[in-house]
Amino acid sequence: MKSYSLPPRTGNQYTICHKDYKATITQLGAALRNFTWRNSDIVVPFEADELPPCYNGQILIPFPNRVDKASYKFQNASYTLPIDERDRDTALHGYGYRSYWQTLSVTQSSVSLLWRSPNMEGYPFDIVTIATWELDDYGIHLTLNTTNHGNDDAPWAAAMHPWLCNGLQGHGDEIDQLNSKCKLKLPAKTHVRANERLIPVGTESVDGTRFDLRDNPFLVNQPFDDAWTDLIRDDDEWTTAIFTRADDLQIAVKGDKSVTSFQVCTATGFPADKHPCGVAVEPQTAYANAFNTGTDLTVIAPQETVVNQFRISPLIENM
Predict the structure, then answer these.
(1) Which of 102, 190, 213, 269 could be joined to 230 by an S-S link, Cβ 3.0–4.6 Å?
(2) How far is CA 255 from CA 100, 143, 179, 212, in A?
(3) Beta strands 305-315 and 139-148: pairing type?
(4) Under CATH, what is the fold of the domain 13-314?
(5) Which domain of life does this protein belong to (predicted)?
């Protein structure tokens, strides 16, 4: 039998660097496998032969979060998706993360990868996304350029799913206590209410509730696996969440004007091997079930290109 070398399960590994920053992007899903500053983890890493335990570093396209009953209607047609969560009867997080992406270019500080949506019955739209991860003086920047190469309008939403390191070491349920030593400032006026299947059922003001994270509270009111919207924006129309670790390092997670909500997950109650030691802070262009509700859904016309931008920036000026 002829011998051969097995590639990592996450495909080719693309390591990029800039000054004190270093990151590795995987061919599988164009995922952010690790990201460090001065050799300190900014995001919770995973190994090259390890499938991301909790969607770590994934790009969630063509929809983030859940589609109720794994089915939806779009422009008078009905579509059925594969069920990912049988206990909740939902499709989850799209399909980009399941594919090996095509390499377009690699430089010392950047990598660009391409994904073309498979011709699947539940999402037959001919979407091509180019993901570019780039390091600069301010951290890591993700740009998605998505073009509809088909003849019909296509529904679209996107998110980035980083798990931010809490600066401590822990395992399983003890991570919740470690996360409570961290703070999160979330620039959102409205909380999205969800049912027991995590499908949105309405919205509410954050005023006077545990969901008001505008004043940078400690994360003592876990669990969170929630979305927030009605975002406060910077002068440049970007929006910025700031996570403060137990060691006082602050990490900004930013989204451009296409980002309409944040999802925050503490993984409370998750199995120990799927409980990253940190908090997921996910900028997204639409929250769960947008394919059914139409809330913040992007519709890409034939031959149209849309751009989504995200950034993770350690605030290191005083470190």
Answers:
(1) 190
(2) 25, 10, 23, 20
(3) antiparallel
(4) Beta-galactosidase; Chain A, domain 5 (2.70.98)
(5) Bacteria
Work out the angle at residue 143's Cα, subtended by the Cα atoms of residues 142 and 146, and round it to the nearest 5 degrees.
140
Domain ranges of the chain: 13-314
Could you tell me the two tokens for 37? 């500053």
- Reading the block at residue 77, the tokens are 């047609």
Q: How many Å apart are CA 90 and CA 68, to the nearest integer?
A: 5
Backbone angles phi, psi at 253, to 5 degrees: -115, 120
d(CA 65, CA 81): 14
Q: Among 144, 180, 160, which residue's Cα sits nearest to residue 56?
A: 160
Distances, alpha carbon 294 to alpha carbons 73, 77, 285, in Å? 10, 14, 12
Structure tokens at 244: 């403060």
* Cα 60 to Cα 40: distance, rounded to the nearest angstrom: 26
Quote the radius of gyration of the chain (alpha carbons, Å).
Answer: 19
pLDDT digits 0-9 by tens, 236-263 = 999 999 999 999 999 999 999 999 999 9
**Nearest in space to 245 (alpha carbons), one of 136, 174, 169, 141:** 169
For strand 110-116 and strand 102-106, is the pairing parallel, antiparallel, or unpaired?
A: antiparallel
